[in-house]
Write a sequence for this structure.
């Protein structure tokens, strides 16, 4: 599945295959499973489920985006960002290794795109990267989801061992407080967001404020995507508004997205190493 994305932090979404297995509480309300398994019966989820490679046609889409990248960059002021993958996990052990080889070949080919590879299995990254990864491809940002402190402590420890031009945390769905360590290696970027959809578990606004304060103090770029539902929006939780009243003031994303009246949507600065790598691969 390749498409122009509605996700606020990327321009396109690309799914090289579909299918996955739940690994932690952040997966409880997996949107991909609800759509692809329960609703459309396209892919059976779970340990004994399937992984279905998407069509050749779909795999050509990033090549088209790559060809249009310089126009897109002029229009949007940044290199096009591709989220990979929303209906699967790139570092899932049950995926045929040849599919992952093909994916990394495509990523190399589409060098004008920044690929945001997000996983809940950072413990698998090192052994599943291509042999020419070395200091990281100049166009790949590696991220891991951390829905609470326990997952952050476990997963960041694994991700930070892997060289990458940008390493990021997706604190979404935020299901418990999460604070960044005061010293040691830190992610370059942190996306936060509440759970959306039926039965969404609410978050406490101060979890988001606290982690954004950590980001500011420690030089990590924060990006608050949305509250997920108005039950988590501070205008409702803290100021007693109805969801309707809150929506009239804050209609960003799902459940609104303003943090104390402002959007907090920053991106990591491309570091010197990513530019050097890019120049090296171009030359
Ligand atoms: S890792 Fe992602 S795609 Fe896989 S089950 Fe969990 S939420 Fe769904």
């Amino acid at each position: 599945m390749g498409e122009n994305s509605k996700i606020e932090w990327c321009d396109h979404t690309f799914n090289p295959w579909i299918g996955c297995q739940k690994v932690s509480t952040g997966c409880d309300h997996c949107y991909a499973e609800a759509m692809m398994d329960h609703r459309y019966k396209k892919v059976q989820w779970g340990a004994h489920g399937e992984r279905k490679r998407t069509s050749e046609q779909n795999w050509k889409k990033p090549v088209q985006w790559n060809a249009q990248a310089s126009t897109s960059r002029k229009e949007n002021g940044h290199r096009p960002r591709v989220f990979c993958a929303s209906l699967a996990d790139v570092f899932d052990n049950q995926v045929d290794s040849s599919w992952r080889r093909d994916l990394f070949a495509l990523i190399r080919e589409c060098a004008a795109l920044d690929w945001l590879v997000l996983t809940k299995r950072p413990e698998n990254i090192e052994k599943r990267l291509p042999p020419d990864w070395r200091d990281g491809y100049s166009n790949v940002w590696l991220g891991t989801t951390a829905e609470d402190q326990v997952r952050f402590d476990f997963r960041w420890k694994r991700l930070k061992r892997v060289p990458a031009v940008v390493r990021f945390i997706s604190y979404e769905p935020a299901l418990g407080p999460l604070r960044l360590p005061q010293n040691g290696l830190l992610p370059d970027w942190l996306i936060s967001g509440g759970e959306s959809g039926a039965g969404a578990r609410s978050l406490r606004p101060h979890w988001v404020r606290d982690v954004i304060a950590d980001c500011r103090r420690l030089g990590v770029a924060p990006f608050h995507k949305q509250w997920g539902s108005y039950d988590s929006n501070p205008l409702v939780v803290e100021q007693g508004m109805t969801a309707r009243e809150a929506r009239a003031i804050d209609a960003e994303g799902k459940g609104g997205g303003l943090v104390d009246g402002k959007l907090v949507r920053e991106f990591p600065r491309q570091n010197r190493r990513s530019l050097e790598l890019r120049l090296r691969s171009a030359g």
The chain has one domain: 2-282. Residues 71 and 77 are 10 Å apart (CA to CA). The chain has ten helices and ten strands. The mean pLDDT is 94.
